[in-house]
């Protein structure tokens, strides 16, 4: 039997991103209903959080709407932006004493191992009064494919209560780790602890970090493909490649040109040898392969430099936080 919509109304159809269908089975009934309730408005012009709450006030409690929005943001369904520009009144200049008092306190590093003990009663009470914790447990159990025991529930609660991470940031980190088959709560805790240390404490900052990390990994993948490498890159190799991408701004065309010169000049082509070529090109101001024609292979060893582009792997590998 053939099915189709009873009327042709293209202006009234709402397209949903593919991520919705990939994550729909992880969502609760309320999360699905909130999304479908708001989808026509979000698809048309986007919504401020206050507008979403107003549209849903007759059908959902505010905490249900906020929790649902956090869930879908964590799944990557929404791209958030700053609030629409609103003209603000100029604030009077603070008195000197007030300015001194307003200076931010020095940030204290929080060790996840120092999280307070949460009893079963504490966790039960948190689940009853804190919708963020309840939604986090639901998402984590589905995405990590396990039923949490008391100690694991305490670990989840510490992300919100002790590390003070927003729900949508925790969901985003769990989703990223799970997508890379890193489903251990110990690993997830290390990532969130590193985020806390680095001040990545909002969804926008976390999203920007993951975008930068993915770009870095994609760039590294191009280099590994050139050399036919299947092993993990060494720290010094990562430092070199980080410089090519961030400091030198070299794209695929320059990588290919440098690799060809490396193969032609070196008996044993290596990333470090290719780095010496690219370093010389950068020092000469070369930005295109055409400008490098006629250049010779470098003879001097490059001075070691350090790349901080990929903080994620170094933070996780510190090993100073044990869960």
Summarize the structure in words.
With 323 residues, the chain is mainly alpha-helical. It is 58% helix and 0% strand. It has 16 helices and no strands. Helix 4 (62-74) runs parallel beside helix 9 (167-179), helix 11 runs parallel beside helix 13 and helix 12 (235-247) packs parallel to helix 14.
Short note summarizing the structure:
With 323 residues, the chain is mainly alpha-helical. 58% of the residues lie in helices and 0% in strands.
Q: What's the arrangement of secondary structure elements?
A:
Layout: H1 18-23, H2 29-45, H3 49-56, H4 62-74, H5 96-101, H6 120-129, H7 131-144, H8 150-161, H9 167-179, H10 185-198, H11 203-227, H12 235-247, H13 252-265, H14 271-283, H15 289-292, H16 311-316
Helix pairs in contact: 2-4, 4-7, 4-9, 6-7, 7-8, 7-9, 9-10, 11-12, 11-13, 12-14, 13-14
- Quaternary status: single chain
Strand segment count: 0
Task: Report the helical percentage.
Answer: 55-70%
- Shape designation: elongated
The largest pleated sheet is described as: none
How widely separated are the two ends? 56 Å
Please give the count of helices.
16
Rg estimate, integer Å: 25 Å
Strand content: under 5%
Strand-pairing-aware structural class: mainly alpha
Indicate the low-confidence ranges by residue numbers.
85-108, 299-308, 318-323
Provide the succession of SSEs: HHHHHHHHHHHHHHHH
User: On the 0-100 scale, what is the average pLDDT?
Assistant: 79
